[in-house]
């Protein structure tokens, strides 16, 4: 297992992308649309991992899904971190251990390329926001979202760690004891901040 990406829930993708660049020097490229959830995204690629901005673009569809309702509720008071996503080559075993369903997913990029994956936990109503969801990509490495070409003014090149509030023992058990750079402190469940490595040191986005 490894951290694949961290998801930021936003009200408007273009506004959030402009703010991300202005405040943190990260370029968020257009990603695509998720018709199943009524959402769309933008991607700040970092090599093996990335930061994802996600927004509800069709509230009527989103209201009928766990993910959509969660995003709508999270962004009522403004943009905020949503969740960590962990890449897992043994996603079927992990899902079986946790009682999750593995669902296929895909989106079409603006250049027409289809990005496909299998995921578990993102639409699970019982998952607390301090627990990551899981993904296994069904694309060659060059189509992984983190591999997209982008120049970041900050010089960011990867995710160093994710800070989460919640139940440390519960998160450890959820991950099956995997040693990931996820730091958990007591508090309401959710992502608090993401730390990125840059040419000038760490960049913390809270």
Write up this protein.
With 206 residues, the protein is α+β, with helices and mostly antiparallel strands. It has 5 helices and 12 strands. The chain has helices at 13-24, 59-62, 66-74, 91-98, 168-174; strands at residues 2-9, 29-34, 39-45, 50-56, 80-87, 102-108, 114-120, 133-137, 158-165, 182-185, 190-198, 201-205. The chain has an 8-stranded mixed sheet. Strand 3 and strand 4 form a beta hairpin. It is globular and about 40 Å long. The chain starts with a strand and ends with a strand.
Topology:
Blueprint: E1 2-9, H1 13-24, E2 29-34, E3 39-45, E4 50-56, H2 59-62, H3 66-74, E5 80-87, H4 91-98, E6 102-108, E7 114-120, E8 133-137, E9 158-165, H5 168-174, E10 182-185, E11 190-198, E12 201-205
Parallel strand pairs: 1-4, 5-8, 9-10
Antiparallel strand pairs: 1-5, 2-3, 3-4, 6-7, 7-8, 9-11, 11-12
In short:
The protein has 206 residues and is of the alpha+beta class. It is built from 5 helices and 12 strands.
Bin the strand percentage.
Answer: 35-45%
Number of strands: 12
Structural class comes to alpha+beta
Shape call = globular
Ends distance: 24 Å
CATH class: Alpha Beta
Mean pLDDT: 96
User: What's the CATH topology label?
Assistant: 2,3-Dihydroxybiphenyl 1,2-Dioxygenase, domain 1
Give the helices and strands as they follow along the chain. EHEEEHHEHEEEEHEEE
Any guess at the CATH architecture?
Answer: Roll
Radius of gyration: 16 Å
* CATH 4th-level superfamily: 2,3-Dihydroxybiphenyl 1,2-Dioxygenase, domain 1
* Main β-sheet, spatial strand arrangement: 2-3-4-1-5-8-7-6
Q: What's the total helix number? A: 5
* Proportion of helical residues: 10-25%
Main sheet: strands, sense, barrel: 8 strands, mixed
> Uncertain spans, ≥5 residues at pLDDT below 50?
none
